[in-house]
Amino acid sequence: MRFVMKFGGTSVGDAEAILNAIRIAKDYLQKGNEVVVVTSALAKVTDELTEISQRAVEGNLEATGEFIQKHLKKHTEVARACIHGEDHLRKVLDDLDETMKELSGILKSIARLKELTVRSKDYLLSFGERLSAPILWGAAQDLGLKVQWFTGCDTGITTDENFGEANPLMDITVRNVKAKLEPIIAKGELPIIAGYGACSPHGVSTTLGRGGSDYTATLIGAALDADEVIIWKDVEGLMTADPKIEPNAKVLHRMSYAEASEMAYFGAKAIHPRALQPVMNKQIPVRIRSSFELNNEGTLIAGDREVKTDGVVKAVTVVDSVAMISVTGAGMAGLPGVAAKVFKVMGDADINILMISQSSSEAGISLVVPRNKLLRAKNSLELGLLGTELVKDIVTEDDVCIVAAVGAGMKGSRGVAARVFKAVADRGVNVRMIAQGSSELNISFIVAEEDGPKAIRALHDEFRLDTAQQSLN
Ligand code: ASP
Ligand code: MG
Question: 45 CA to middle of ligand 1, Å?
Fold first, then answer.
């Protein structure tokens, strides 16, 4: 069988975790499988790169110097602890040195110019994986494997220039990835790919969005017609709810692509929201499992949304850091084109809308947007609409969250919404706005941010998610 396996930040967080990851890959190879490894940056490194980019743009040269020292030390120590062969270690340390010099140069330029564009930021953020991949390479060499490592760009993953959240250009990517990796796999060697980063057709560095090494893995999986993509993490799989909120949360053993995507969009951080797109068409299964608990098989994502299940709601998730905007005015009723204007304004301001609802009186449209875009959204709407006499008022609230109940069994099953809202109301939680997609795969609603956990626990109890899993699988 052919596997593409991605190791997340914690699964390559230190020397021990890296050795464990390489042993897992080796085990699959020894059983006669073909394997491609995709790696994340060492745990937290991308977050720290994001932070240092802020210090740098403030002109803080000292902080950038400290950052380089700290990360050179950290990566060097990890490399020394998991690579023992002198030659391999030397090669990796040279590699790390050189990459650090490049990184240092970039940070210094940002600090001197006090300028950071989305374009240069993507270049900067791709360094975490450029530093982790060679360490995995060395560790794999040490364990006697034949290995080559590549950046996403070298592998041929090609995207548009939507920096920060670039979109893969599938045709070129598939062609490049096949041409690059098939010969290596055919020789029985192990390719290790730095996840997250890619390149535009002009060779400019891009990234696939935070958590994007999942996406790297599924893109490669689709290009190589893998039998399965495995996402190794430090959690056991997708869960019925965030265990930090609901201690009785359970691992979901099976989800359809549509359900898992819906969960990812609605805050379950276990997989990158767009990562399932490339594999869905080809029906390549994706398994999310823990690299530290090998006895557990994790969550298998496969099949259509029509998967027959006896559970209605399978999981509940919460998205915080959102805000609600209500655009109101009696003049809006019966007038075609108001919604179009609202959405055009938002689109022109480059603001992603997470939820929409309009009451049938047509006197108001409510939108939910990322909280950090609220000010821009409000200003743009005021500039674009208040003069038109249709819209009287634009009201915003920023202390809200989205709660979503997800499950394919909800489709065509009556009374689910009634149960959802009764359960929430019984706990004294006030619902501010409701939306159900016509896919009927989820019901999502807005509550005060402080009520989010209460709503999650209410739904988890109502739909018996702590016990439902056994009967689902
Ligand atoms: N290192 C990147 C991030 O933390 C990509 C990833 O880990 O998937 O967002
Ligand atoms: Mg990460």
Answer: 9
